[in-house]
Amino acid sequence: MTSSSAPIPVNKIRYNEQGLVPAIAQDYLDGTVLMMAWMNAEALQKTMDTGEVWYWSRSRQELWHKGATSGHLQKVQGLRYDCDSDALLVTVEQIGDVACHTGERSCFHQVEGANGTQVSPPPADTLSQVFNTIADRKQNPQPNSYTNKLFEGGDNKILQKIGEEAVEVVMACKDDEPDEIAGEVADLLYHTLVAIAHHDVDLRAVYRKLQSRR
């Protein structure tokens, strides 16, 4: 367990008639829901004792150390239970960034569209979604895309815009206009995301730095 999470007394959890409780695994950096599986009291205790997630396999009727075979371990960053004590939320560092046996990052990657079932990653936090769109523009340029025009201009264009937006944040703060401040900060964040994508820096690396400074 992490220093920020105290162990959960296993007898406080309300297990179902099979002695199981649903456990949802969530990425600790961007909040993406990765998977849902089941734990019994022993799996929960081993999860807390080892700092790695253990589940109960209903098909094999045995304890399941997540990632022991694939290498896609889940390192526990936090553990909590809901208001009825009958569901668990485990925040994890997903090793290999793959939780699903299909090779997808999340088990919740299927949506129904006009052409049937489609693969679509589940939503993460807003900043990550914007960054993913920016990264996609870099790999798959779009005509008349403002983001692609920034990439084409390189550091000179991107850094110029960051400087301009930073000044506008300062001015909005001096004017004490909350809506203007929010808008200018959003513009500054967007252009900063373009800069880190231009330099092939993953947003998750930034999140890890922020986590270490909490």
UniProtKB/TrEMBL annotation:
This is Histidine biosynthesis bifunctional protein HisIE. Its EC number is 3.5.4.19, 3.6.1.31. Transmembrane segments: none annotated. Residues 127-214 are annotated as: Phosphoribosyl-ATP pyrophosphohydrolase. Pathway: Amino-acid biosynthesis; L-histidine biosynthesis; L-histidine from 5-phospho-alpha-D-ribose 1-diphosphate: step 3/9; Amino-acid biosynthesis; L-histidine biosynthesis; L-histidine from 5-phospho-alpha-D-ribose 1-diphosphate: step 2/9. InterPro entries: His_synth_HisIE, HisE, PRA-CH, PRib-ATP_PPHydrolase-like, PRib_AMP_CycHydrolase_dom, PRib_AMP_CycHydrolase_sf. Residues 35-109 form the Phosphoribosyl-AMP cyclohydrolase domain. The keyword Nucleotide-binding applies. Residues 1-126 are annotated as: Phosphoribosyl-AMP cyclohydrolase. Keywords: Amino-acid biosynthesis, ATP-binding, Cytoplasm, Histidine biosynthesis, Hydrolase, Multifunctional enzyme, Nucleotide-binding. CDD domains: NTP-PPase_HisIE_like. GO terms for biological process: L-histidine biosynthetic process. It catalyses: 1-(5-phospho-beta-D-ribosyl)-5'-AMP + H2O = 1-(5-phospho-beta-D-ribosyl)-5-[(5-phospho-beta-D-ribosylamino)methylideneamino]imidazole-4-carboxamide; 1-(5-phospho-beta-D-ribosyl)-ATP + H2O = 1-(5-phospho-beta-D-ribosyl)-5'-AMP + diphosphate + H(+). It holds the Pfam family PRA-CH. It comes from Leptolyngbya foveolarum. In the N-terminal section; belongs to the PRA-CH family. One of its GO terms (cellular component) is cytoplasm. It is found in: Cytoplasm. GO terms for molecular function: ATP binding; phosphoribosyl-AMP cyclohydrolase activity; phosphoribosyl-ATP diphosphatase activity. Its main location: cytoplasm.
